């Protein structure tokens, strides 16, 4: 009887924990292409593994996932001019690149339950890149909002000042 | 009269065909062909859609004539998009800076084909900074390089960001991954 109850508890717990983990599932070929695209188009400045220190470039490794804490922060990752205008026409491929950045380079920083980007979302967002606002001010505003709503977000998220 | 006889022959042929084949059979085969079509890799089409031609033939003249033996020459395969002095001629190596200079943590990334295995590799062109220009073995190759408005693939930029001095000395070519 106890064993039966344990099995039941386990069965109930599995879907919950699976849903709570931030995740991006994709076939190995898609993940390899996403990594290759990242290195080719972003890695020169952001670093092959997402770490650009000591250069004054936003650090992605272990941090970028926090932007998924707010809807505006999530949209910002696609509306960044170099992402929206990236020479990758296929929105699915661009979504895979950003998912690689957020869920692989960002590691544990994506909030629990954060959902991966898909091509449809990316196709819509990349049509409205940030062009009129100052990127630095916009980033500072978003980070302040993220730190209010997700108190676990590290202060280092605000480090980048250009 | 000859016309009638050819009509009759054609009618007999059609009747025989109709009598020996079932429409369902034809539909089933047609259906199977339509369903199965996407299973077969339609290579030319998917290749065109991906927009990435990594083949040697798809590259510029550089990839067709590149060599893999001498890294002090401009036609060494990793230098397909280098702009500047080769560090191999300046006391450094293909991926090491000469003594007294500092590697930049930022770079731009090119895609070069190794003629030995025919594969495309991602190459980070890291500048060595902090000493006056070496000015030996100056090369300017521009495979896939873009104008300055796409800085991440422009090779005219001095990439000495994040180092103590912006003074450019020479460039290295580091393999950072395979291009997929």
From TrEMBL, chain A:
A GO molecular-function annotation: electron transfer activity
Signal peptide: 1-20
InterPro entries given in the database record: Cyt_c-like_dom_sf
Keywords linked to the UniProt accession: Signal
Record-given protein name: Cytochrome C
Organism: Sphingomonas spermidinifaciens
From TrEMBL, chain B:
Family note: Belongs to the aromatic amine dehydrogenase light chain family.
Crosslink position(s): Tryptophan tryptophylquinone (Trp-Trp): 108-159
Tryptophylquinone: residues carrying this PTM: 108
Pfam family, one: Me-amine-dh_L
Entry GO terms, CC: periplasmic space
UniProt catalytic activity: 2 oxidized [amicyanin] + methylamine + H2O = 2 reduced [amicyanin] + formaldehyde + NH4(+) + 2 H(+)
Domain Methylamine/Aralkylamine dehydrogenase light chain C-terminal, chain residue ranges per copy: 67-177
Subunit structure: Heterotetramer of two light and two heavy chains.
Keywords: Disulfide bond, Electron transport, Oxidoreductase, Periplasm, Signal, Transport, TTQ
Pathway: One-carbon metabolism; methylamine degradation; formaldehyde from methylamine: step 1/1
Role of this protein: Methylamine dehydrogenase carries out the oxidation of methylamine. Electrons are passed from methylamine dehydrogenase to amicyanin.
Domain of life: Bacteria
Disulfide bonds: 74-139, 80-112, 87-170, 89-137, 90-134, 97-128, 129-160
Top class in the EC scheme: oxidoreductase
Catalytic residues (positions): 108, 127
Stretches that traverse the bilayer: none
UniProt-annotated location(s): Periplasm
Name of the protein this chain belongs to: Methylamine dehydrogenase (amicyanin)
Protein's GO biological process: amine metabolic process
Enzyme nomenclature, EC number: 1.4.9.1
Any one GO MF annotation of this record: aliphatic amine dehydrogenase activity
Organism: Sphingomonas spermidinifaciens
Gene3D superfamilies per record: Methylamine/Aralkylamine dehydrogenase light chain
Residue positions binding substrate: 83, 155-157
């Amino acid at each position: 009887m106890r064993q039966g109850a344990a099995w039941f508890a386990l069965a109930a717990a599995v879907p919950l924990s699976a849903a709570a983990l931030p995740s991006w599932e994709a076939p190995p070929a898609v993940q390899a292409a996403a990594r290759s695209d990242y290195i080719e188009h972003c890695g020169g400045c952001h670093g092959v593994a997402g770490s650009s220190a000591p250069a004054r470039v936003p650090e992605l490794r272990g941090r970028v996932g926090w932007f998924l804490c707010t809807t505006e922060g999530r949209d910002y990752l696609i509306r960044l001019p170099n992402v929206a205008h990236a020479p990758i026409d296929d929105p699915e491929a661009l979504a895979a690149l950003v998912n690689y950045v957020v869920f692989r380079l960002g590691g544990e920083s994506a909030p629990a339950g954060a959902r991966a980007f898909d091509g449809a979302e990316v196709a819509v967002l990349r049509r409205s890149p940030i062009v009129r606002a100052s990127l630095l001010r916009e980033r500072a505003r978003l980070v302040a909002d993220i730190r209010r709503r997700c108190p676990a977000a590290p202060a280092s998220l605000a480090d980048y000042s250009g | 009269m000859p016309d009638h006889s050819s009509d009759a022959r054609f009618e007999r042929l059609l009747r025989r065909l109709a009598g020996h084949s079932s429409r369902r059979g034809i539909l089933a085969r047609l259906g199977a062909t339509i369903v199965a079509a996407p299973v077969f890799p339609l290579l030319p089409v998917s290749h065109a859609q991906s927009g990435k031609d990594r083949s040697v033939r798809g590259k510029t003249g550089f990839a067709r004539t590149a060599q893999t033996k001498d890294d002090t020459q401009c036609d060494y395969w990793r230098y397909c998009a280098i702009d500047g002095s080769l560090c191999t001629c300046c006391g450094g190596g293909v991926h090491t800076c000469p003594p007294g200079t500092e590697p930049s943590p930022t770079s731009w990334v090119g895609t070069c084909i190794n003629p030995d295995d025919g594969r495309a590799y991602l190459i980070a062109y890291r500048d060595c900074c902090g000493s006056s220009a070496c000015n030996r073995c100056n090369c300017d190759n521009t495979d896939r390089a873009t104008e300055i408005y796409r800085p991440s693939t422009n090779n005219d930029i001095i990439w000495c960001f994040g180092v103590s001095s912006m003074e450019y000395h020479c460039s290295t070519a580091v393999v950072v991954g395979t291009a997929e």
